[in-house]
Records
---
Amino acid sequence: MPDIIHLLPEYLANQIAAGEVVQRPASVVKELLENAVDAGATQVQLIVKEAGKQLVQVVDNGAGMSPTDARMSLERHATSKIRSTEDLFRIRTLGFRGEALASIAAVAQVEIRTKQREYDTGTLLLVEGSQVTSQQPTACPDGTSIAVKNLFFNVPARRNFLKSNAVEMRHILDEFQHVALANPQVAFSLYQNELEVFGLPAGKLSQRIVALLGNGYKEQLAACEEVTHSIAVKGFVGKPESSKKSRGDQFFFVNNRFIRSAYLNHAVLAAYEGLLARDTHPFYVLFLELDPKAIDINVHPTKTEIKFEDEKTVYAVVRAAVKQSLGLHNIAPSLDFDGDVNFAPIRPLRTGKGTGLVPTEADDHLPAATAADRAASSDGYRPDALAASAAAAPRRPRPACQQGHRASPALIPIPAATATSASCRRVLPSRPAGSWKLSTASWASP
Ligand SMILES: Nc1ncnc2c1ncn2[C@@H]1O[C@H](COP(=O)(O)OP(=O)(O)OP(=O)(O)O)[C@@H](O)[C@H]1O
Ligand SMILES: [Mg+2]
């Protein structure tokens, strides 16, 4: 029998490999936006036509590429982001595999315009189905513009698998949201069929959340922060009453990369235990910072799933962070006591960083955020304001066993003898002596 094994032609190998990275226009959006962020851009524009089927273009003002790098960027396994195996375990960039542009170029018509600041002219590259058809100098602004046209023009079967424009656009918006939430210090805009859908100025995380997801979130954000020696959790969670029937607005970022994790979602839900109406889902945007050595990003083709070296600790810290946040914002389950003694809610004396109170804000992970920024927050979000609004806001109806005098369980050690219902008592991690103090000044009991 004759030998039957042969090497695939390069264009076919590229198309097959592209299948892992590029499933739909939204995959292109993700890869191009991530490249722009990795290039240090402070302004990024996303332009889509026909839900990305006709055009996905990302224009950034980042570092740009030299003429040789522009050509190299289209090769498979060509990257500027890692050099050695050790680098794989200290990844701080979003990309590192060097295959996104090669994959995209295998299944679309691509136009790259790029210029580094120190060059007078830029480079224009045209590629079609992995074939570079033209490379020439061009006049263009600093940064990079990559236009991806007619996705899957050479793989009709895959083009036919694309869903309606509405569905594909929803996927694009999801990817845009992820990158925009993770990088509030970068200005993003999104144009759909020449209409500006989003114009997001650089700002703080709280402002970015409201600008992306709607004004309704202004009153619903509870800042969340927990820092241990191995992991930091920062961000915002929604007050329980803002939870929704749909599971939409839940975001985890690990070292600024959006990830999906049913396990960590469970940790958050565990912190909300008893607070959510049936079949509703809380909002959260949580950023986890870990030593890159403690995670493995290279376990999923689109890098949206990762492995934690010590996932139990991560779970515990996330749960504690959310629980603490709900407690500090006076929205954790209340306690009831016998008798008429009016236990006023309590406030901590400490107000320094790390107490979860004024002036700590989860925005601290932003390099640009300063104390002055916080004080001048244009969206009015401040933890102290939140505390006040928590007092003013209508309260969630509580179970009968909780409708007594109340105190935040996160803040007060409860003498067992005074608790009327063991089921309502919560045992909380001990706090340093003198940290908390009873106060009658604010947060009046209902
Ligand atoms: N917008 C951009 N600005 C500057 N350089 C870019 C840009 N996009 C791509 N590059 C350069 O091209 C290289 C290849 O990009 P590509 O997205 O294919 O791979 P990667 O980002 O290194 O890894 P991954 O495949 O995981 O995304 C990058 O490493 C980077 O050096
Ligand atoms: Mg990339």
---
Amino acid sequence: MLLNRILTIAAIGLTASGFVIPEGQEEGTYAVEFVDGVEVHTKLANATVYAPLPKPYASEPQPNRLIRRDYSCGGARDLHHGNTDAANADLDRQCGGGVNVNPGMNYYSIRGDIVAFFCNFSDREAKYCSAGGRQDYSREITKACGWYNSGWFTFPNQWSIGYDRGRCFCGGCA
Ligand SMILES: *[C@@H]1O[C@H](CO)[C@@H](O)[C@H](O)[C@H]1NC(C)=O
Ligand SMILES: *[C@@H]1O[C@H](CO)[C@@H](O)[C@H](O)[C@H]1NC(C)=O
């Protein structure tokens, strides 16, 4: 059993690149990279004054019985709407019209108790993060998980995007 666990941890170490947000991290947008096995968090931008996007992503969820298995719902319900929208909007500012996120690099934005994140699980390829894509996935997360409940979409071994409370993301505390 112990050997199993060690092997599992080693395997995760090779493929996953989840992260843990340092306690007391201030609001803003960050990149996380692993440098010699150490998580390095770099602040990319301060939190901005939230301005609603012309087309808000969070349209009222349609009744939808078909929940795709690639969507995971976190445990948090009825997240603070303003903080959720603002964290997602700051992540959108970072990803913009589309940026390549390097292997093993993750982005996140903090607003209040909410974190919006994009994780690149690949150890080889850059993954594409864009504001438009983020908004599409957030709409689907809303359908799968409910109105302002935490959730994320994961393309296994490739990338993950979503929002939740807490400090551990993308398997960072697994
Ligand atoms: C955030 O704002 C502070 C104070 O205005 C400024 O000194 C700092 O450079 C900003 N940080 C980033 C990453 O833009
Ligand atoms: C994803 O991670 C890989 C490996 O660290 C890196 O080369 C690639 O640039 C990352 N992609 C993005 C979009 O950050």
---
Amino acid sequence: MHQQEPLPRSLVRPVELYFVCPLKGKSYWTRDWEIAGELKVEENPPGTRRLKGKVSVTCPHCESRHVYATEELVCPLTQT
Ligand SMILES: [Zn+2]
């Protein structure tokens, strides 16, 4: 099975994202996140695509809800 799977469509099937708990300072990976409010793609400057919006996550370390701006996230799909 060496066939490459197509990239997951992030809005349909959430990808695993990397977060840091602001209270405990610990990092974690989770796919248990959801979009908080509106998410939009901005092209500024043209050719550079940026996801603008917020996601909310239930933190496994302190079990409270954190909201992150997408600019702060390390997206495995857009990493260079
Ligand atoms: Zn936390």
---
Amino acid sequence: MLGSVLPFSPELADKVSEYCENHSEALPEALNKHWEWTIRTWMDAEMMSSKLQGQWMIWMSQWIAPKRASVTLTVANLVLEVGTFTGFSALAWYEGTRATKAEIITLDVRGEVLNFTRKMFAELGVDDRIKVIEGPAASTLEQVDGQFDIIFLDADKHNYQLYMNTILERRLLSPHGVVFVDNVFARGLTMGNEFNPYIEKIRRPFWEANGETLRKLNKSFLEDPRIDTLILPLFDGVTQIKWKTGYLEPGADETSKQ
Ligand SMILES: C[S@@+](CC[C@H](N)C(=O)[O-])C[C@H]1O[C@@H](n2cnc3c(N)ncnc32)[C@H](O)[C@@H]1O
């Protein structure tokens, strides 16, 4: 088996997810409860990250955060997220940065969901470090300042190219930071519309349009001279992006001046 993805049936994929969840550092109870609440409460809860993806976020942010602390002695502005929804992923970033107490900025356009999200953040006492900015990310990203070690793109796929351009042009990604771009497989349809017969009929046009967008986007990221791109078969496909080695001028690292 030389391929990078095992040929799982849906049943085996569920089993494997469950196995990974149960054999990884457990999600804190508050996140578990919040995930279950979202599933029960919101019709479109399928847009929330999976529990295992939450475990992955906690692990990654615990791993990345100390590196920045040791390099710069500052932990401000660690995580930027585009796509808050009910706040599950923001809670995971919060959990993973407890030691460094980093600020987490999360952007979303849906006021009716954010009303619940903000209330829940206040109840859980996490609004000391999570800042929610409401509005279309194309404009709110222009208002965000700082350099982020983790940037998570998990919103409207057809704007990902715009978001990446803003992030790179405004140097929002720290010199040693990483952008995680979520759902780059579009449920498998990035590879072609003939794949994945399991998508609900009503959701298929949405994912077919996303598949087409992501095919172009993945190619464009790969050809972008500013960045190094790695697509991984994690969850619904995650692209990891960092600055291309040597792209940033010496001294362009604002954090080293702090
Ligand atoms: C996949 S969900 C985010 C899920 C969340 N990160 C999680 O793991 O629970 C995508 C979110 O992007 C938001 N969104 C869509 N278009 C947007 C836009 N133009 N600007 C900001 N947010 C947008 C939606 O309102 C939705 O809440």
